[in-house]
TrEMBL record:
Chain residue ranges for the region called Disordered: 153-174
Keyword Signal: yes
Species, as recorded: Komagataeibacter diospyri
UniProt keyword terms in alphabetical order: Signal
Name of this chain's protein: DUF3035 domain-containing protein
PROSITE patterns hit by this protein: PROKAR_LIPOPROTEIN
Biased composition (Polar residues): 160-174
Signal peptide (UniProt feature, chain positions): 1-27
Length: 174
């Protein structure tokens, strides 16, 4: 009885779905199912205006009152800065700027503080527990010659090789 009800219901749904899709144009349906791509218009893609040319392509005249550039230093000063880097950090009067003085002062305060160990020293206890287990000590040292003889004898007699006592070295000579 359930099959007789399902067949007309499925046919009705199929027909109504067809009517719904017939109301759409072909382009809308194919675009909705991703069969047709909508390509962007190359003239509407950009959101900013193109770069503009400067009013003049001539370079400005040099300003003699401007601050001296780094490449304008004389060779004597360059040699002095190479030999003593502190000279490069100092101003013309031999002292550093206010910002440089504050920075060096803060660095000296930080270097004088005691290291609490929060940073700079990693906690290695977990790794040590994994790699270097504690306690137990070394096991017994196996006597190689006696073990070889035992294995040969067991194999010749057809015994299980894992049964029996393993001969070990004991005494001060270990």
């Amino acid at each position: 009885m359930a099959i007789s009800v399902l067949r007309p219901l499925s046919c009705a749904m199929l027909v109504s779905g067809g009517f719904l899709l017939s109301g759409c144009t072909g382009a809308d349906v194919s675009r909705a199912f991703g069969l047709e791509r909508s390509l962007p218009d190359e003239y509407t893609v950009t959101t900013r205006a193109p770069l503009s040319m400067p009013p003049s392509d001539e370079l400005g005249a040099p300003n003699s009152n401007a601050i001296q550039r780094a490449q304008d230093t004389n060779p004597r000063m360059q040699a002095l800065e190479t030999l003593s880097p502190n000279v490069a950090l100092q101003g013309a009067d031999g002292t550093g700027s206010a910002g440089q003085t504050a920075l060096v002062g803060e660095a000296q305060v930080a270097s004088n503080e005691e290291d609490k160990g929060e940073m700079g020293r990693a906690d290695t206890s977990f790794v040590d527990k994994l790699m270097f287990w504690h306690g137990g000590g070394a096991g017994n040292l196996v006597n190689g010659k006696a073990e070889n003889a035992r294995l040969r004898e067991d194999s010749a007699l057809g015994r299980n090789l894992t049964q029996g006592a393993t001969p070990t070295v004991s005494g001060p000579g270990k």
